[in-house]
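Could you please review the protein record set out just below?
***
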Amino acid sequence: MTAWTCPKGDRRFGRRNQSHECAPAMTLEEYFAADGPPFERAIFEAVHAHLSTLGPLHLEPVAVGLFFKRSRTFVELRPMTRWMVLSFILSTRVDDPRITRQVAVSGSRVYHQTKLRTPEDVDEQVRGWLTDAYLSTPL
């Protein structure tokens, strides 16, 4: 599932010796035991429920958010005060008013962000983006 595991933090990355904070991931229980926003768990569950239907998946809860990985991170959920930031990488740009940020990261890969305020925001369109991000990420 991954190209390299950090020997100090036991976290998985897509490239050998990738720069990162060398700290182990938390368990999901440890992550949600912290004082996060009240909507965070329900949004995570909506995203995780969909991604879990697509195939093998590795989840890394870290202090800044929840990272979903195959060979590398392809979806992130990061809590903010009033919403969760959903980040995902696709091989095309998404033209949708809900996309709040787009950055070309390499070749044809584009990093996208959108805000999720409730689990209902994980609608058919968002699930489509999540599916495309999963399928476009190498094993």
